[in-house]
Amino acid sequence: MKTLQMSKKPNQFFRNINAKIASIPMILTVLVVFLGGSIWTIFYSFTSSKLLPKWKFVGFDQYERLWETRRWIISIENLALYGIFSLIFTLFIGFTLAALLDRKIRFENTFRTILLYPFALSFIVTGLTWQWILNPDFGLQGVIRDFGWESFSFDPLNDPETVMFGLLISGLWQGTGLIMVILLAGLRGIDEDIWRAARVDGIGTTKTYIRIIIPMMRPVFITALVLIAAGIIKIYDLVVAQTDGGPGIASEVPAKYVMNYMFGAQNLGQGFAASTMMLVSVIVILVPWAYLEFGGKRRA
User: Fold this and answer.
1) Do the Cβ atoms of 79 and 234 come closer than 8 Å?
2) Is 20 part of a structural domain of the chain?
3) Which of 18, 36, 49, 172 is most exposed, with minimal Cβ within 10 Å?
4) For residue 239, how many other CB atoms are within 10 A of its CB?
5) Burial class (CB in 10 A: 0-12, 13-18, 19+), 129
6) Cis omega (within 30 of 0) for bond into 247
7) 241: helix, coil or strand?
């Protein structure tokens, strides 16, 4: 009887067959477009491709040239600087705003809409808007000087030492609202009994956030980190619109380096090498995180 029942048990492969069939286009897209495109890019990064791809293998020449180029080194430094500060300030400001809104203040919906609105704009629009705001003649500096403060100076976009911070301001303005909403949703998911228990035990609000609330919101923070990282990578649009890499090459970023070499200088081999290095940097960060996030759970 048991043998008969086992024979009637459906094959694991045919379970949820409709869902598996529906996922075939997505799987093919991942394999062909993403995986295939990555392999294609890596392969041609070892060639001397110029305007069009060609099979002339040159080994690591493109990578040696890449790391000897001052423009590439500056772009890496700029991305690291922007990424670190963007990560810290976006999370800090976003969580602070979320915590304030979680106090159920008046006109909460209005404030939430106002703070989230910049995220609806493209990076091009954001870059052009802040290019105007930070313009020394008719922007913030010009307006304050018109009020009588003649010595006031705030011109970050024209100073190589501060241009990345000018970009950071516009990036924070656009992205912080989304992170605030995500973290606010996480805060609203915390049971009120936890807050009551903390008050009964005499734990202050700050300690409650640090020791109880924030650890409970770990998955929410991971989601926020992924979105912030995506925004850091997309800084290309912001740079092109706001500074176009200037002054000089002071605000160059890797994505702009890739685009300039692939479509401007018509040097596909160099552009592919830079793209591959960006891919490697993402993998170096992603693999340890994935191991800690999923590998640890399996062992547990």
Assistant:
1) no
2) no
3) 18
4) 25
5) middle
6) yes
7) helix
Coil, strand or helix at 244: coil
- Contact indicator for 264, 50 with CB cutoff of 8 Å: no
Low-confidence ranges of the chain (pLDDT < 70): 1-14, 289, 292-300
Report the alpha-carbon distance of residue 249 to residue 263 in Å, rounded.
Answer: 18
Tell me if 23 is assigned to some domain: no
Q: What are phi and psi of 142, to 5 degrees?
A: -65, -40
User: What does the pLDDT read at residue 157?
Assistant: 93
pTM for the whole structure = 0.84
Whether residue 55 lies inside any domain: the answer is no
The CA distances from residue 104 to 92, 109, 185, 188, 213, in Å, are 20, 10, 13, 10, 17
Which residue range is the domain that position 221 belongs to? 70-299
Quick: pLDDT tens for 22-80.
888 888 887 888 888 889 999 999 999 998 888 889 999 999 999 999 999 999 999 99
The Cβ of residue 281 has, within 10 Å, a number of other Cβ atoms equal to: 14
Q: Rounded to 5 degrees, what are φ and ψ at 47?
A: -115, 175
- Alpha-carbon distance of 67 to 59, in angstroms, equals 15
| CATH number of the CATH domain containing 93 | 1.10.3720.10
222-227: which pairs have CB atoms within 8 A and are 24 or more residues apart?
Answer: 222/293, 223/182, 224/90, 224/91, 224/94, 224/179, 224/182, 224/183, 225/87, 225/91, 227/175, 227/178, 227/179, 227/182
For the stretch 198-228, pLDDT in tens is 888 888 888 999 899 999 998 899 888 888 8
Phi, psi (5° rounding) for residue 105? -75, 165
